[in-house]
Amino acid sequence: MAHIARRVSARTGEVSYRAQVRLKGKPTESATFPNRKEAAAWAASLESAAREGRYFPLAAARRRSFHAVAADYAATVLPAFDETQRAARRRHLDWWARQFEGLSVAEITADRISKARDVCAAERFTRAKPRKDNKTGKLIAPKEYPRTGATVNRYIATLSHLLSFAIKERRLLDRNPVAEIGRKKEARGRTRFLSDEEREALLEACDKSEWYALSALVLLAITTGARRGELTSMRWTDVDLKVGRALVRDSKNGEQRALPLAGRTLTALRALKLKKGAQSEFVFPNPSGHPGAFEYFDSYWYSALARAEIQDFHFHDLRHTTASMLAAQGASLLEIADVLGHKTLAMVKRYSHLVVEHKATVIKRMIAAKGL
Fold first, then answer.
1. What DSSP letter does each residue of 254-273 carry, written as one string?
2. I need a labelling partner for 61 at 20 to 30 A (CA). Which of 8, 166, 285, 365 fits?
3. Distance between CA 151 and CA 115 in Å, rounded?
4. CATH number of 56-187
5. Distance CA 155, CA 186 (A)
């Protein structure tokens, strides 16, 4: 039988509700909640679980901190993911651990999660480090970005997976509180791509960049449709300049794929190899000399965009540019999906109108030629 008591903190005046459930043959379980509704729902869930034989040792959940369960999840579950996914989920786990510091896993309620979700959505982040202006010597702060609804939902998905692990593998909980909160609205995928004039202006601006490899990187992105991470992590051992092919070993969908290299891209990579190739295993090494790939080149990228006078354009939009050029040359949605590395056609449906426009042009040309 459940008993719910209203409590008022003598120090802060904060109101809370303590629920106690006495189960036959089991120790008394109790928990504190910010409102009576949550307390009643918890008590009803526990009593129902006991009747159905699904009793979970919630006392153990109160003794296990969220941080301990997150560490257990990181050690047990994360190794199964690829390097990119592991890095993203670790970043999410670290963020949730800061929000729930000092709390047990039993105290991770839907109310607390929804409040943390809104904090996540309100936060801003940067993609680069402060850099020194070569002329003035002053530090320039990197540009800040708001988190999108899609990004916030990825954070929530990681938390949900962690709590499912606590339920199924560690039997600490009997329900996942993430199921009780809503998700942020996700914007429709962007379809911004470069016109022919913008493309040439951007490449010309990249040629003038202070970072010698920016032009080769952008050419490679435009002509292959590869993702940013796939390009920056590329090693010379994965590039065959004689045959004209590069291998992406760790793609987003977990499959390897080959990137054909030709034209100006192949010429730029050959020049890059002669200039800097012997100094690093990575095609795009850190120009500062630090080991590893150069992941945070945003300051050079945005300087090139400004020099080319291109507005509202992201590096990821270079993939859309690849797709638009393929569609203009008559490529089908299936062919575009294959080039971009998508397993299904769902992600390339945004380009369907481009394919239709090309087909309409071809049909009109045929009708004019045949007098139909």
1. S--EEEE--HHHHHHHHHHH
2. 8
3. 16
4. 1.10.150.130
5. 13
Which of the two residues, 50 and 156, has the higher pLDDT score? Answer: 156
Read off the pLDDT band of 369 (50, 70, 90): confident
Structure tokens at 144: 């800040």
Residue spans of the domains in the chain: they are 1-55, 56-187, 196-370
- What's the mean pLDDT when you consider all of the chain? 85
Cβ neighbour number for residue 258 with a 10 Å cutoff:
13
CATH architecture of 196-370: Orthogonal Bundle (1.10)
Q: State yes or no: pLDDT of 26 exceeds 70.
A: no
167: tokens are 């339920």
Instruction: Check whether 9 has a pLDDT greater than 90.
Output: no
Polymer length in residues for the chain = 372
Tokens of 65: 């901190």
To the nearest 10°, report the CA torsion of 214, 219, 220, 226. 100
pTM over 0.85: no
Taking alpha carbons only, the member of 50, 37, 35, 42 closest to residue 20 is 42
Task: Determine the 3-state secondary structure of 4 from DSSP.
Answer: strand
DSSP 331: -
